[in-house]
Every structure is written in structure tokens, then in C-alpha cells.
Amino acid sequence: MAIPRAAKTQRRTRIQEEKEELILEAALDVFSVNGFRGSTIDEIAEAAGMSKPNLLYYFRTKEAIHRHLIDRVLTTWLEPLRAFDAEGSPESEIRSYIRRKLEMARDFPRESRLFANEVLQGAPHIEDELKGPLKQLVDEKAEVIRGWARSGKIAKCDPYHLIFSIWSTTQHYADFDVQVRAVLGQDMSGEGRFDDAARFLEQIFMDGLKIRS
Amino acid sequence: MAIPRAAKTQRRTRIQEEKEELILEAALDVFSVNGFRGSTIDEIAEAAGMSKPNLLYYFRTKEAIHRHLIDRVLTTWLEPLRAFDAEGSPESEIRSYIRRKLEMARDFPRESRLFANEVLQGAPHIEDELKGPLKQLVDEKAEVIRGWARSGKIAKCDPYHLIFSIWSTTQHYADFDVQVRAVLGQDMSGEGRFDDAARFLEQIFMDGLKIRS
DNA sequence: CGATAATTTGACCGGTTGGTAAAACCTTAC
DNA sequence: GTAAGGTTTTACCAACCGGTCAAATTATCG
Questions:
Q1: Which of B130, B135, B169 faces A165 most closely, judged by CB atoms?
Q2: Across residues A147-160, what is the average pLDDT?
Q3: CATH of the domain at B24
Q4: Helix ranges, chain A (H)
Q5: Confidence of residue B212 (pLDDT cuts 50, 70, 90)
Q6: Nearest-Cα residue of chain A relative to residue B137
Q7: What is the domain extent for residue B23?
Q8: Residues near B132 by beta carbon (within 8 Å), at least 6 away in sequence
Q9: What is the pLDDT of residue B32?
Q10: What is the largest CA-CA distance in chain A?
Q11: Which chain C nucleotides are covered by protein, judged by CB under 7 A?
């Protein structure tokens, strides 16, 4: 008798590990483009190179796959913000935060789009995480920024909207990639636009925050 | 014999005008949340308070409704950028561009999300518009900005990425509304956050571009 | 009014959806 | 080898999908 999804043995077999990873990879492709409702299990199964019932042997429902992906993204996604260090200098911290977020937009655009799709559609699966852990983390870092402003290290500004603006400008290059490419033309379809973006964003934020380098 | 969709009379009847508007309104609600593939005709029909065949009497296909909405949004959406005037001062032009885009995010969040969903999902229905009219318009305005930079009115910067950053920061308040609200907490769930955002963005862009006010 | 055209409805269609059942097929450990 | 458990497949289901059709209903206008 087959009791799936490692219910019995606790320890997952080699095949389980491989196939689950395969499925998640395929699901990331599909979900990040079509969103949860717009994606089908058949599509994911085909992308993963297996039959639908076989896929459903590893993940009981479509939601389970999505949930798994979202959870994974949520943790890695906030890593750069977590690394934001109160002890560091405003210049290096903000500059490297921008750079890291931009690198993630370049290297993990699917993850960015998965998240964007979810939030755009009202965040039905992650509202609690947004109001809980995310808000808490942002509150904490906002306080750091506010401290820098109070001590005159950076210009006075609303720390929350500063964080929002860094999020939006950097993620834009992943989420609106098609538009960015269309506007820049095919000459800039290489990865050069990320370097240009980094230069621009660092300049505008540094000067905008009156940080002398 | 009923030849629908104003094929015969050219002049649309009162009922046609009303119902079509009703459908588009309902469809905007649905499409802007779920994207094209994630939305169903049944859902739109119910939201519009009519039966599915009745809805399909006014719009032959699901795509026709979506197409209609996208077309409408595309024209009104770029209005602020079109208004960008080469003769005006950099300060007033950029400042009012930011303000107008932010007002649109506040007043027409569904339109913003419809567009975001479309682009996020690879812009399958509007790729031509992006590469054609949109690129052309941006190219034109980028040249204006480049001129300002050359003549020393604003700091030297990449005009394309400047436009991208204004788009992303302002639309963020519509597209990621749920996240913004979650992070700011319910105290800021009123419309005050838009004023704060306007203050922040005008500050950062003005100082970032070294524009003396 | 009556007639003509515009609108609305219910029944329906083939294909797809998320998901299940059970049997067949492999792997692994003894 | 063989038996137990892990994996895959085939066949299937009810609900839903986008869309059609013809008949019924309603609005318009002379």
C-alpha cells in the first residue's frame, strides 16, 4: 500500500526528493507567468515531464504546490532586508541593499513574478505573513533608517516609503521585464540594463537622501 | 433577426451603450484581480448581473472584452507622459508627472492592476503596442530629459531608467496595495499614505536629480 | 395597435478542470 | 529471490470552461 508524501517513513526517498524538486521548478515556471488561478495542474505536470496523477502523488493539491513555492520565496526574498545592518553606514547599507535587490531581480525573476502575481491578486494566500512577519521586519528596519535621519546621517524622509521605493524600482526589472525590454529596444536586451539601472538607482537614492560619498 | 453588436444600425442603442459599459465595469473588477486566464466569463457575467449568453451577445468572446479594456487603459494610461512638456521647467514637469501618476494609482487602481497583470504575464495581447507606440513616446520624452541634463538643468542620468523608476514607484501603490496596507498597518489604511508617498517621492526625485526648488 | 428588430433566456456542446481509485509496475532490503 | 513498500499509469468522475442555438421575451416605431 502506498502512503504518499512521506507520511510513513519520515525520511524521504531519493526519488521523492528529486521529483518534488522537479515539480516545484516546473510549477515556478507556470505560476510565475499565469498566477494561481490561471495555472493548471496539467500544464505543470507536462512541464515537469510527468503525468498529472503522478504529480498529485507528490503534492495532494494545486494549492499545496503553490503554498510550498510561496513559503520558500518568502524566506529567501526578505534575506537582503534582513541583512540590513543597523551598525553599518547608511551609504554602504542602502547601496548594497539596492544592489542585492537588483541582483535578485536579475537572477530570480520568476520568484519575483510569483510574489508579484500573488500580491497583485489580493494576496489571498499570504495575507497573514504580510501583516505579521513582514510588517515586523519592516518596522524594525524603518526604525534604523529613522535613527539615521534623526542623527543627520541621511536626509529626513519617511522610512517606509523609502523601503517601498527600493522594492518597487528594483523589482520592476523582473516584474515588468517585457515592458522594459520593449521600451529599451533589442540593443539593450542583454544584461547591460541591470548595470545601468544599478548606476541610476544608486545615484538617485544617494543624492536623494543627501548621502555624501 | 438579431444581428448583435451594432453590426446593422451603426448607431448603438441606449441599452447597448448601458450594458456594454456595465460589462466593461464588471470585467475590469474581475480581470484586474485574476488576470486574463484566471478570469471566467461566468464570473464577469455574474458581476455584471446578467446571464452568460446575454453577456456574449454584447461581446463575442472573452478576449474581446479584455481587448476593449486594454485598449481603453492604454490610451488614458499614457496621458500623463504625453502631457510631459519639453517647454516647461524640469521641476514643474517632473513634479507634476509624479503627482499625476500617483493620483492615477489612487483613483484608478484597477486599471493599473489590469495593466500590471498583462505585462507580468508576458504581455501576450499588447506586445506590439509596447514595442511601437509606447517605445516611441518614451523615446521622445527621454530625449527631452536628456536635453535638460545636457544643459545642466538636472543632474546627468539615464532618462529611461528615470522614467522606469517613476512608473514603478507610483504604480506600486496600486499594484501592491495589499502589501503596502499590511506593512503600514491599519492606521495608514486611509488615503493619507498617498500624500506621504507624494511628499517622499517628490523629495527624493528632486534632490536625486539635483533640482533646486 | 401591430410588426419588426433588439434583447434575454434556458438548454446544450465538446473540451478542460482539479482530483480519485485501483491496479500495474518498479526499488529496495532482507 | 522475494516480499513489502514506493512509484507510475490507465481509466475515470463531477464540475466547470468558453461558446452556440433557437426560442421566448421585450423595446421601438409607424
A1: B169
A2: 96
A3: 1.10.10.60
A4: 14-38, 41-48, 52-58, 62-77, 79-83, 90-107, 109-120, 127-129, 135-150, 159-175, 177-184, 192-208
A5: confident
A6: A183
A7: 14-71
A8: none
A9: 98
A10: 68
A11: 5-11, 16-24, 27-28
